[in-house]
Protein 1
Amino acid sequence: MSEIKPFIPADAVKITGDTTCLPAAELNLASGPGFTIFDGKKILACGGIRIYGIGEAWFLMAPGNEGRIKSIMRQTRETLEGIQRDRELYKIYAENIVSETFIKHLGFEKKNGIFLR
């Protein structure tokens, strides 16, 4: 069973294996709420929302978790919905999309070349 915990920048380093992502991860943490999905001690994915009046969603998934994509998508969608509701965000946007199918499953719709929810 997986568990959601608050995001810390070291989680992004563990996913990417690259410490050069640390400044971006620290920006993510300073700019709004983030979460990490764990299976025991193993990190499956992390994401969150940078808040600049409107929310900007971000997300990383650890390699090798493709077989768990449905549960990761569900947990991510539910967590983003909670952040959007709790922070009373009118809209959240996402860009640099790797998979349009994935982002649409998270509740985003493409409008004028940008994904909004």
Protein 2
Amino acid sequence: MVSGRWKSGTLRHWISFMDKVKLEYILWKDPFSVDEWQSYDDIDLEQCTVVTYGQVIKENDSTIAVALNFDISSNPKKVSCVMIIPKLCIIERRVIEGVAYKEKT
């Protein structure tokens, strides 16, 4: 029991949910801003290439939201470390097979 927060069926609910989720690998270019005064000649246009591993929890035609952490003791579901990525920035995206949450026995 975690801080008295476990309720009957909560872990079972999360195991059922996590069995359905797909862990994804997303390679993308990170848009950035430079927040200091610079001369035109000093501005560097080199973007970072980022790899994100997580669960896509929301998606529309232009954007995805990837969660990295799941609170398995909460109902309704809670997540943290959510990265919002514009789809135009994505270079590659694929599902990672064979990864799922399993209850310890």
Protein 3
Amino acid sequence: MAKLKDTAKKTLTIKVTPDLYERVRLAREAAREEGKVYNVSESVAEFLERDMKRVYKELGKTPPKKTSENQPDMFSNEKPKKTSNNKSIRGTN
């Protein structure tokens, strides 16, 4: 099954040193040789999420709510998250 493109995401362009760029390129190439995928976007997004939490905490601000995290992914194989009263967020419990 083909992977569906997430149209809700935006592009973020960053500048990196030539050395870092080359290391990322080599890591991707090595992963492909082993039949794997090294997804830089996922790694950077995870880092930015952690950094944004730190920045908001440091500024004493409340981060905005993320709507995509609350909505179940219909293509995900993950089990639905449980709430504190042991009911599924999807309501299928």
